[in-house]
Amino acid sequence: MSTTVQEPAVQTSDEAILGFVDCDVHPYTKTPADLDAFLPERWRKLRHSIGNRSRSSFVGAPNYPRMSPGVGMRMDSWPKDGGHPGSDLAMMREQLLDAFAVSYGMMMPLLGRGGDERNVEFGAALCSAANDWEAQVWCDNEPRLKAAIQITTEYTEAAIKEIEKRAGDRRFTHVMIPPRGLEPLGRRRYWPILEACAANGFPIALHLGGTSGHPSTGGGWPSFYHEEHPSYPQSKEALVTSLVTEGVFEHLPNLRVALVEGGFAWLPSLSWRLDKHYQRLREEVPHLKMLPSEYIRRNIWVTTQPIEEPEHPEDLITTCEWIGWDRIMFSTDYPHWDQDDPRYAFKVKVPEKEKRMLYRENALSFYNLEA
Amino acid sequence: MARHVVATVGEIPPGGKKVVNPAGREICVYNVNGEHYALINRCPHEGAALSYGHVLGCFESKRPGEYQLTRKGEMLRCPWHGWEFDIKTGQSWCHPESVKARTYKVEVVPGELLAKGPFVAETVQVKIDGEYVVVEV
Amino acid sequence: MTIPAPGAIDCDIHPALPGTHVLLPYLDEYWRAHVRMRGLERDNYNAAAFPVNAPINARPDWKPPRGNAGCDFDTLRTQALDGFGTKFAICNVLHGAQAIFSEDLSAAFCRAINDWVAKEWLDRDPRLRASIVVPMHSPELAAREIERCAADQRFVQVLVWEMQEIPLGRRQHWPIYRVAEQLDLPIGIHAGSSYRHPPTNLGWPSYYLEDYISWSTGFAGVLNSLISEGVFVEFPRLKVVLMESGVTWLPAWMWRANKTWRGVRAEVPWLEKSPAEYAREHVRVTSQPFDAPPNAAMLRKIIEEIDCEDMLMFSTDYPHWHFDGNDALPDGLPEHLLKKILVDNALKTYPRLTS
Fold first, then answer.
1. Tens digit of pLDDT for each residue in A94-112?
2. Contact C241, C349 (CB under 8 A)
3. CATH number for domain B3-136, candidates 3.40.640.10, 1.25.40.10, 3.10.450.50, 2.102.10.10
4. Which pairing describes strands B68-70 and B75-77: parallel, antiparallel, or unpaired?
5. Which of C197, C254, C256, C291 is the best mutation test for A, with the most CBs of A within 10 A?
6. What's the pLDDT band for A3 if we cut at 50, 70, 90?
């Protein structure tokens, strides 16, 4: 940062971003009880007796406490009449959907925690309830919002059933899987679920998260959120590595995968590294018919938030060129603390054609949305 | 440049703040231990309204594991990305030379002086015996 | 490209133990008896992170007539030293001794390996230097071993693996860093895991290819830990060398670490500079395997983004197989950096090379 910055420079004009597709919006319940209405009695009771059991240290908080209240919410997003940020549609419209005339907001609900639940039957019920809640509480009141199909990857039959149940319902546009599961997502035991996504035409949105029980780094649990937050890209790198080397994209060439909330600047280097070491170790993975980078280029999309902040802003353009502008989609992550404002996220001028791709066109085609 | 009367002194007690709009500029006036400072209400990073941020102090350390809270009430933390700013200078903690929130000149002026003008008072009624916060924009 | 002139310093070569039995003469009487009692000298404690016959770990034309790649002194001398015109080469023994759960047995094996390296390798060629292997999970014994070996100036750094029980920055490790800083020994952090945890936070991958890719993401975690915990604040003269780590992941890591720091630094208030600045001052990276982009212009861009002429240090990673012939550096490295990469940066990083 060599020049003095006193106010954010408007690098992206309003016209260019108006009507953008937001690939990461987080709706929340007003109170935890809101989900009860969508749960069968057995699970409602269990939710209030034993409750959620994942593979982390605390019941109602993440392993790494965030640096702002509400588990890391932007502080101007608390509804005045109470409730959690992201729980009030009027406020979400005011701060996001109407403010930027958002065409579509792709919901990534982080509630219910069905995907993390150790009791997989309970987990499947929580996922299904959260999906109904998304559709009825959000999509039916605001058709610009599109629902994620939440599933638990540890209960294959229920996951497939849930995907098939939502197929054909235009409110649902993508399957959401918390990537930190028990095993890397590319492993064979998850293929029936991935096959169901492809067969039903759903792209997969992999938002960071999940409580695998495995430490955030291969060398153990870090001490600080200051380490946890920058570990998300490494998680994404492992995810891409797993999906590619296991041959998922050889088996399902039409499967489309979006990486959400992991940034993206790491992707070119990962591609080069994979190609280099694949040349040496290819006899271990004979099921791959192309270079790893070619599968990445064909099947993987990235979302922008949290936007990379190079020391020289123009380096971001180079990075985007190396990835391919047709594979990058804008996301805000509203209402989290590290969300991006579409006007100011890019500190460098994005060419006009690429801007349209990044803010709108890539996502319309990725999610099969009507223009 | 014009001088704008934006508040009575009593409206912004020590530790308090008020968002004002002189000349169409959203500015937040802070009272830091009895002295007034004004910052533009937009973070230089991505434009968040700084007035929503915590004003607690400066989290500092001489060495790992030792902690001290200094400059209580003088540091503002952006309500979005947590960038910290010195309310008195607008300088950011991480990049004090290159990243600053724009500051404005503030003074407390007795009503009788204001009566001589020139000043702009759009929303505050000025009385001779009152004391007023004046921002230069 | 091949090395433009002789006299390079090779910061990462791997002499290998022919077998655990070779350590018997180097164990003290007690531990020799202990090892014999359990028959451990017949077992193979090679590190699981580096399967010795995986093609990436054993270049075909670098295999000796008998035994595993790296086992034979004459072969290594001809290929790794004479072959590249090397002035100094630093021996990093990658052996499972450092991962043995018992702190005391691990320490006994580490002592034996250090003495074996001194006698069987360093004594036989004046160009060889070595890293001190230590039981990292026992800071007290590790610090003691560092002090013991440091009397021999040919030991130029401390060798640890990137992925162990707890992140490397944690305060438990600080006695090791304290003594290393005092004795002018950088901490050489080598790729690899003792597999106390899965190498990725998604769990256990299927393929060695995935493990190998994870070494680079592991290093990102290592840097996040060392910097966040304040290791470089507490030990301002300490240098760490990342070995067999790849190179081109650094800019993206810097950008992200800096971004987090700007928002979250109040959690770790002892940091007075951005993570990238700490890295440029304290972190060095060896060149192989160089995960280079497809062309020279892109490589120059990455080097420009790393923006630190002191950071890169030459290595062949002998006998691991990342390049053929003598093509030990990627094309496209700026001319003015070559001498720094090949010689100067290592001389500055390892004070003991010139003492």
1. 999 999 999 999 999 998 8
2. yes
3. 2.102.10.10
4. unpaired
5. C256
6. low
- Give chain A's mean pLDDT: 95
Question: C119-178, pLDDT tens digit by residue?
Answer: 999 999 999 999 999 999 999 999 999 999 999 999 999 999 999 999 999 999 999 999
Sort out which chain B residues have CB atoms less than 8 A from C167's CB and list them: none
Q: Across the interface, do C260 and A219 touch by the CB < 8 Å criterion? A: no
Residues of B in contact with C229 (CB under 8 A): 64
Query: Residue B120 pairs with which residues in a beta bridge?
Result: B4
Is there a contact between B94 and C261 if contact means CB atoms under 8 Å apart? Answer: yes
Q: CATH number of A14-366: 3.30.365.10, 3.50.50.60, 3.20.20.140, 3.40.50.261?
A: 3.20.20.140
Q: How far is C252 from chain A (nearest CA, A)?
A: 5
Q: Give B40-61 pLDDT, tens digit per residue.
A: 999 999 999 999 999 999 999 9
Of C263, C269, C274, the CB nearest to B61: C269
Per domain, the residue ranges of chain A are: 14-366
For residue C312, the cross-strand partners are: C285
Q: Is the pLDDT of residue A85 over 90?
A: yes
Nearest of B67, B69, B73, B137 to residue B104 by alpha carbon: B137
Q: What percent of chain C has pLDDT over 70?
A: 100
Collapsed DSSP state (helix, strand, coil) of residue C318: coil
State the CATH class of domain C9-353: alpha beta
CB within 8 A of A13, min separation 6: which ones? none
- Provide the residue type at B105 as one letter: K
Any A CB within 8 A of C166 CB:
yes
The token duo for C282 is 């304290």
Residue B82 with chain C: CB contacts under 8 Å: 262-264, 266
CA pair distance A327, A314, nearest whole angstrom: 19
Tell me the average confidence (pLDDT) per consecutive run of 10 residues in chain C, 355 residues long: 92 97 98 98 94 96 94 97 97 96 98 98 98 96 98 98 97 98 98 97 97 98 98 98 97 98 98 98 98 97 98 98 96 94 98 92
Residue A130: the pLDDT is 97
Question: Where do runs of H (alpha helix) occur along chain A?
Answer: 14-17, 41-49, 69-72, 89-92, 120-133, 156-166, 191-199, 225-228, 232-245, 248-251, 267-281, 292-299, 315-323, 352-356, 362-366
**Which chain A residue has the Cα nearest residue B96?**
A4
- Is the CB of residue B100 less than 8 Å away from at least one CB of chain A? yes
Cβ-defined contact of B52 to A337 (cutoff 8 Å):
no
Cα angle value A202/A324/A148 (rounded, 5°): 20
Phi, psi angle pair for A40, to nearest 5°: -60, 155
Q: Residue type for B14, please?
A: P
**The token pair that represents B97 in the structure block:** 């030379």
Pairwise CA distance, residues B93 & C265, whole Å:
10
pLDDT band at A1 (very low <50, low <70, confident <90, very high): very low
ipTM above 0.85, yes or no: yes
In A52-119, which residue ranges form alpha helices assigned H by DSSP?
A: 69-72, 89-92
Q: Cβ distance B61 to B54 under 8 Å?
A: no
Share of chain A above pLDDT 90, in %: 90
Amino acid identity of residue B58, one-letter, is C
pTM, two decimals, is 0.97
User: CB-based contact (8 Å) between B28 and chain A?
Assistant: no
Q: Distance from C76 to chain A by nearest Cα, in Å? A: 22
Residue A41 has pLDDT above 90, yes or no: yes
Name residue C203's amino acid.
Answer: G
How many Cβ pairs within 8 Å bridge chains A and B?
A: 62
